[in-house]
Write a structure and sequence with these properties.
The structure holds two protein chains of two kinds. Chain A is mostly beta strands. Chain A has no helices and eleven strands. In chain B, about 0% of the residues lie in helices and about 45% in strands. Chain B is built from no helices and nine strands. Chain B has a five-stranded mixed sheet with strand order 1-9-8-3-4, with no helix packed on it. In chain B, strands 2-7-6-5 form a four-stranded antiparallel sheet, with no helix packed on it. Classes of the chains: A mainly beta, B mainly beta.
Chain lengths: ~110, ~110
């Protein structure tokens, strides 16, 4: 069964460093999302992406965040200058139809 | 998006049906009810969705009241692997539509 994959599974970085989280959505899906979950808290929407542009973004998704689909398979989330409060699980999701979203296993980002 | 209310936790014996309730009294006419679950810290997993009719798939059944103000997710024969946090989410259908997660119901399936 097709699945969303994410790399790395765990990323440790120092405050102020740039990180890029990578996702490979399900082939033929056209709609992509990033969510995050701070330990013990809710899953929060960050951004949705379609046709090479952002469809919607939350207030969390400020100028420090960017997304890109650099080729036909990868979907990336970049955080330019990480802060301690960016430590969280980051989930990528993709959608082919109009109902269900398929989530990846997540990348645990630890900012020290 | 309409707000949902779920009990914070429930227990269920293995092999028995798990019935997870959700209130969504402010749901609007074009909003669907979606159920996802999250096992430990894994990515959320889609279970089922519905508009106003009851729905069933290989994972679960979804019962939506006639006034659409509440729904129940039914896992007919719960197993230990069904232990997870279950999220009831109300939102518009359509692509590029965000999911707004609440705190969900933590279902513990026991022997």
């Amino acid at each position: 069964e097709p699945e969303v994959t994410q790399t790395p599974s765990h990323q440790v970085t120092q405050m102020g460093q740039e990180v890029i989280l990578r996702c490979v959505p399900i082939s033929n899906h056209l709609y992509f999302y990033w969510y995050r979950q701070i330990l013990g808290q809710k899953v929060e929407f960050l951004v949705s992406f379609y046709n090479n542009e952002i469809s919607e973004k939350s207030e969390i998704f400020d100028d420090q965040f960017s997304v890109e689909r650099p080729d036909g398979s990868n979907f990336t989330l970049k955080i330019r200058s990480t802060k301690l409060e960016d430590s969280a699980m980051y989930f990528c999701a993709s959608q082919g139809g109009i109902y269900e979203q398929y989530f990846g296993p997540g990348t645990r980002l630890t900012v020290t | 998006d309409a707000k949902t209310t779920q009990p914070p936790s429930m227990d269920c014996a293995e092999g028995r049906a798990a019935n997870l309730p959700c209130n969504h009294s402010t749901i609007s006419g074009n909003e669907y009810v979606y159920w996802y679950r999250q096992i430990h810290s894994q990515g959320p997993q889609y279970i089922i969705h519905g508009l106003k009719n009851n729905e069933t798939n290989e994972m679960a059944s979804l019962i939506i009241t006639e006034d659409r103000k509440s729904s129940t997710l039914i896992l007919p024969h719960a197993t230990l692997r069904d232990t997870a946090v279950y999220y009831c989410i109300v939102g518009n259908t359509g692509t590029a539509s965000k999911l707004t997660f609440g705190t969900g119901t933590r279902l513990q399936v026991t022997l």
